[in-house]
């Protein structure tokens, strides 16, 4: 319609022709304009030769400005005037009538044309001035007076209604009904409703009727025998009146009720389309209401808007093909929700709508679905599901509840709403405390299971409104999309625009559902033991372990590692011999291999959340099994364990990871590899997987360029980046750790803490602490610091190589959060480290390093007041006298 209108290019900027105030000036301009077409016509008798290349010709069809003809020697052709009246009238019918009328000034030929247009449409412009309403009313009345068609097909009026207008409006309605109007729209706003005159209530011509703020008085019988489409909104109709109206419409096919309309039941054999939009009781007792729907031929049902104290009972909707549940319910005038009740309502509706092919469901209903346990025993036949959602946790839970019950789904449309708050519509937390009670939380169904059950048919997912910068790109959405994209036999994924598609594709590409881990150097500190053993052996051959071999053993089988070492040192023995000698020594040490920091936490977390895990290591399977046997629960964490002896070539060949994916019954692209070695990273990338590298040799991160991410330790893994459930153990920016203890006399440091940064750090000698330091990944930590003669203070510190200064030694840099009047070199400093903040990083400037350290300070200061951390303030280690060393680590 809009398009058609704009294609009618008439310049009608002549002002309000009939407004009394402007009539003089209009009159004068009219005489001027009227002279134009005659001259134009005369000239047209001898039209100058023109081609389509003539620029004035080309521009003329677009906007033939009248004044243009005066200047131009070649006035534009007037093709429109040559059209037959009936066609012009059809065209004019597409304009607001006010504009159609203005064409009367074009010429004598045009002057009567509009008076017989089939459609009349008057829309009052938004205005607060009473005078504008008056001139609008005058315009309508005058137009109708000049109109002389016998038939009006469509009559549409939209205006603010006041009581004093009733007889005027009666006249309009009379005018329309008298001209056998078929499609009538009376759209009013205002404070009082217009009461329909009896000649409208009894009308056999009307086929479509739209009424807003109109009532039917009690005595008036209603008879609309031809009516097919009826829309009633804000019409203050009680149930009795609505029933009277429905009885008077024996051919009704399409019914829309909106706002102040009460309806207790809708029974019709003819009705095909029904919309109930935000209906609320009018003129009824204040109790809860029910709307019963018994329409066996209904094809489409929409329940929309705010529904107040009303439930729907679907008695017979057996032909229904499409249902739109985008309503929101409140149970009282304070907009309170009763989620238990709403859950029941939704459950009943969905059970009744089980066979409907298309289901559209809005945020509120999704949230209600969330707590419906077992929507229905039978599975739905729907093949189209459209969700309107912010993709917040609660709505996602609803979707997760719906999907497994839709095994025939072919198309899923996700319309992402701009997220304003992601607030719960219900106060679920109160009502469903058990759901959020972490101690008592019912196990959410594992996503894998959910998706396995339904994706057989899914062909197309359409996503609209995706914006990676808003919370529609939040973890829940990513998680959800990850599963959809990976777990379905999806043929197509479409999004609103190409930009979104790329950014979404980038997001989705990264999403995984399974994790494959390397063992040695990634989960277990094997390299520590290997180093220890090799060190001893090298000594036996008169060689000194000097660190260059560390790089050579990482990510290798013991055989390969031994080979590398034999070669590196030119040992006078074959690698097999060397290995045969080493093997029993290694074996004896296996029980002493410690998990790397964060390993237990990661495995437990992924396992608790049902993320399938595999262990893929170059070492022989029996060695793997032996190594993990010393760690509680580890064997059960992995659904697949695959050793170097089970494949033809170990890492860097992708074979081992591809085999792991196969055994996990998943696509390589759905796997995340966690690896410490470069060969492992190479293998993972070659397998087409996402790879996070956790280099086990310090300061090597720059060598891992092919990894998708390089992290410092497992503590820094953010599973949500990969579409996996995020850790929940962070508290106010800190990660609680098992407390560990370190102490000694304060020594001189690099001499730059106070000088360069304004941040003094009391250094401890690395001697004697080196093994303790190597047990802890570099990074920023915090805890309590004790100085025997002074007291116990909050403390934040870094451990590591201070990338900004690129130190060669790993140091510990504790900043005591207290102002001291003097230095305390030589004094015994005791530290209890209780939590982790972040990895050590480099900074582009000194200022940014300083700012970050101050941010760490604020985080530590606040966190240390939490009981979880503050309780360690009284640890006796902090104040114990020097000689009674206590090293709990
Ligand atoms: P260094 O290079 O010797 O570590 P710094 O500039 O880092 O020198 O200063 C550290 C010294 O400053 C500590 O050894 C200690 O004696 C003193 N000091 C004073 N106030 C503090 C504080 N709040 N935290 C740590 N050390 C402090
Ligand atoms: N140095 C870095 O190069 N990168 C860091 O991220 C970093 N973080 C720190 C955090 C804290 C809380 C403290 C106390 C120090 C940190 N430093 C860091 C170390 C700082 O560079 C060091 O204190 C000075 O080099 C003084 O030796
Ligand atoms: Mg210092």
From TrEMBL:
CDD domains in alphabetical order: F-box_AtFBL13-like (cd22160)
Comp. bias regions, Polar residues: 53-62
Keywords in alphabetical order: ATP-binding, Flavoprotein, FMN, Nucleotide-binding, Transferase
Keyword Transferase: yes
Keyword Transferase: yes
GO BP annotations listed: FMN biosynthetic process; riboflavin biosynthetic process
Signal peptide: none
Stored PROSITE patterns: FBOX
PANTHER family referenced in this protein's UniProt entry, alphabetically: RIBOFLAVIN KINASE (PTHR22749:SF6), RIBOFLAVIN KINASE/FMN ADENYLYLTRANSFERASE (PTHR22749)
Protein name per Swiss-Prot or TrEMBL: riboflavin kinase
Source organism (scientific name): Corchorus capsularis
